[in-house]
Design brief:
By secondary structure, the protein is mainly α. It has two domains: about 250 residues, Rhopdopsin 7-helix transmembrane proteins, CATH 1.20.1070; about 140 residues, no CATH class. It is built from 16 helices and no strands. α1 runs antiparallel to α2, α10 packs across α15 and α12 packs antiparallel against α13.
């Protein structure tokens, strides 16, 4: 696997976030996020075989890149824990958060010193770019260096996975009235983070299993190399978990929310389109490059225009009767209002298609009812669209208008 690919991808993310780091350099969360991305990218970059050869040749020390990568992994594990502490800690918990952060920094600082000490005391004269762990699994001090790093990284990843899972569970257990879209995105991000950290645990476990296999006289080098695949997968999941709470609310508000509303407005759009002439197309042109928000605005504007055109064919009697029936059927006030308007506009479209005469006075009353409902109820158009499939238009709605038309018609 080409380890430069995830390194470059993370480097691009870091460059994109660099302006945010400059603007909010005093924010512990921003600094921690950028530290995690930087250390993750560095670990992949220095783990690539060409970089290993270059570092070893430049320093003149065989396998110097091994201890460098181990130190970066230890720092990455520390940065993840620090980020979680800063992320979850609020203003009221700031002193406690700082103490926890200091403990993690000191703990992984000691681990880094021990890693360097073990490498200095041990002997690793033969450069190994692919199978360092299995080749030196029985070498004194080098063996302890590998075990110390893998245990530290695996333990930190396991602790981070448990912390993310518990936090996500706490958010899931909150009362429904306290839930927010941002909280839901945070819960999803924490769940993805927990899976990503568990994948990193798998990486550490695979490395440890390959080392133990060497002690028992077995060659599990394929498992040792496959561990990097787990590391790459864990990297992608952890990066996604950190990005979901940041990017998710924007996507929900600007992309997914409008798309859901557009889909919900489909029945109403088709009903209004059929009432507007051949083809039933909306009149407001929308550029092909327009985003979901612009398309939703144009769709709602067109639907409103079609409703106003049908106003002269509307019957407030139909609306009131359908609204009362929906209330008696157990519908909420918003659902009842939407059902009444859906029945009124359905009957109006039918009256227009049958060529019944328009009634300007009735149209004024219908428009007033529509405006009053819009001022009182949110997402009224979506409610009308959903009610279209279930409302039953009273047969007397336009029958009265038909009888009135018959009385004014000339006798034959």
């Amino acid at each position: 696997m080409n380890l430069y690919i995830p390194a470059v991808a993370l480097g691009i993310v870091l460059c994109v976030k660099l302006p945010s780091l400059v603007r909010r350099r005093h924010s512990p969360v921003v600094r921690s996020v950028n530290a995690v991305i930087f250390l993750q990218a560095s670990a992949f970059f220095f783990s690539a075989p060409p970089t290993i050869s270059f570092v070893n040749e430049a320093t003149g020390v065989s396998n110097f890149s091994a201890v460098l990568v181990y130190c970066l992994l230890s720092a990455y594990a520390c940065a993840c824990r620090v980020l979680l502490e800063n992320w979850r800690g609020g203003v009221e918990a700031l002193p406690l958060t700082r103490r926890r952060v200091r403990r993690w920094l000191w703990g992984h600082g000691v681990v880094t010193v021990l890693l360097i000490g073990c490498f200095v005391r041990g002997e690793a004269p033969v450069e190994r770019r692919h199978d360092f762990e299995t080749y030196y699994a029985g070498t004194p001090f080098i063996r302890e260096m590998m075990l110390l790093c893998l245990f530290a990284v695996t333990a930190a990843a396991a602790a981070a996975a448990v912390a993310c899972w518990r936090w996500a569970r706490d958010i899931r257990g909150e009362a429904s009235e306290r839930r927010t879209p941002a909280g839901d995105m945070l819960r999803v991000g924490l769940t993805v983070l927990a899976v990503g950290f568990l994948t990193n645990v798998t990486y550490g476990a695979a490395k440890l299993a390959a080392i133990v296999a060497v002690w028992n006289g077995r060659d599990w080098e394929p498992l040792n190399r496959a561990a990097m695949s787990f590391a790459c997968l864990g990297t992608l999941l952890v990066a996604a978990g950190f990005l979901i709470p940041i990017v998710g609310p924007w996507l929900a508000a600007q992309v997914f929310g409008p798309l859901r509303t557009l889909r919900a407005l489909g029945p109403l759009r088709r009903a209004m389109g059929r009432s507007g002439g051949p083809g039933g197309r909306m009149r407001l042109p929308t550029p092909w490059s327009a985003g979901p928000g612009r398309r939703l605005t144009d769709r709602m504007t067109d639907i409103h225009d079609r409703m106003l055109e049908l106003g002269a064919y509307c019957s407030d009697e139909v609306r009131a009767r359908a609204c009362d029936e929906a209330r008696r059927g157990g519908g909420t006030e918003a659902e009842s209002v939407a059902a009444g308007l859906a029945a009124m506009f359905t009957a109006a479209a039918d009256a227009r298609a049958r060529g019944l005469p328009a009634d300007g006075e009735q149209g004024v009353t219908a428009v007033r009812a529509l405006r009053a409902a819009e001022a009182e109820h949110r997402d009224l158009l979506v409610g009308i669209s959903r009610a279209l499939g279930s409302v039953a238009v009273p047969p007397s709605g336009h029958g009265a208008r038909g009888r009135a038309a018959g009385r004014t018609a000339p006798s034959s």
